[in-house]
Amino acid sequence: MAFRFPNDFLWGGATAANQIEGSNTTDGKGLSTSDVQPFGSFGELIPRHGGDFNIKDIAIDFYHRYPEDIKLMSEMGFSCFRLSIAWSRIFPQGDELQPNDAGLAYYDKIFDELRKYNITPLVTLSHYEMPLYLAEHYQGWTSRDVIAFFERYARVVFQRYGDRVKHWLTFNEINVTLHEPFTGSGVPRGSSPQQLYQAIHHQLVASAKAVKACHEMVPNAQIGNMMLGAIQYPLTSHPDDVFEALERNRDWLFFGDVQARGYYPSYMKRKFRELSITLNITEDDVQSLKETIDFVSFSYYMTGCVTTQKTNMTMMDESMFKMGGNPYLESTDWGWQIDPKGLRIVLNELYDRYQKPLFIVENGLGAVDVPNENGDIEDNYRIQYLNDHLYQVGEALQDGVEIMGYTSWGPIDLVSASTAQMSKRYGFIHVDRDDQGNGSLARKPKKSFYWYKDIIESQGEGLVAPKQ
Asked: Which residues carry out catalysis?
């Protein structure tokens, strides 16, 4: 690829605390909602009892092995590492007045280690978890009280880490509450649309209050939102299919509309009327929402199709959105369809819509990695997947889209959020652990490790045009 990415483009990888750290009760950490989802966000909730197995209790032991892992990321040339702070490490129950000093001290060590290697941290405040106590005693984000608890938490970490962290995100994939309510907002499955959208409203207000606090407390920082970006195509050219795709895409774009524009769009007001949803929105809420984000970030894994016509369209049941299959696309080992061109489409759509810088903070291939006779993993399939997607990022940059960076999901093998499997591997770095928790936890670079290193060194010039 003759095109060279901008010199200030941030290259790196993305993780979540509950998928890598382990040590789920160490140093005063409270249980989180993730801790009662031992089989992933698609699984049922299981109360914790002493001795129960949960692979996330150790995960890949980043809590203790972070110096080795960050050093490996530095060797790849990372200029950015996306990670999350476990809210329940800082406020174990969530409603305390004072934070847990041991939890704060842990992240001091992480950020100091990143600074040692000149790696920019991109920090998510809430990534698929919240203190379990808030879900059990306040019904999660359905309670307005949780807004103040989140703002207190945000202000504590801004104060503590603002000298070292200049890039922040509020909620990971904030639109996921519509599909996995407990994962997204601590709200039980089966909750009514009224309950879900009230919880979402409280999150949107809390996000805006965190943005305001960040602007006040760390004025040289940037703070963005984060959405699960899963664009849907009309299966046919029938106008009904085209409009159905428009409406389904608005389901997730709505979150960006509020956070980037500062108010509820008219199409959502119509939807609320038709669903008989009446939200409790105060005047303070209206004013709070006007504090808008500095940039738009999103994850991108797949696209899907929708139709209103009678058809035998295949459904991707393993996808969180339960989207329809596209007959023109191939699929991963887990049935997620591979659509690199879709990433260019999403980038252009979002930039046209918001005119704000964009950040691709998750994209990657979950696959079964099988070592060869020498014990090495030659993951050419992952290299092709990432090459083809990054090539489209380069195309979008040439389209004029302003893109801050790219953090591949799972730069090191971690526990899958959706299925709590280690066998669903994303990383450039292999971790010796299986789905039953067996293994030494030893780290070893894969072939893709060296490929990504070369791409970063060449500022993307090493990318090749995808096969037609």
From this structure: 362
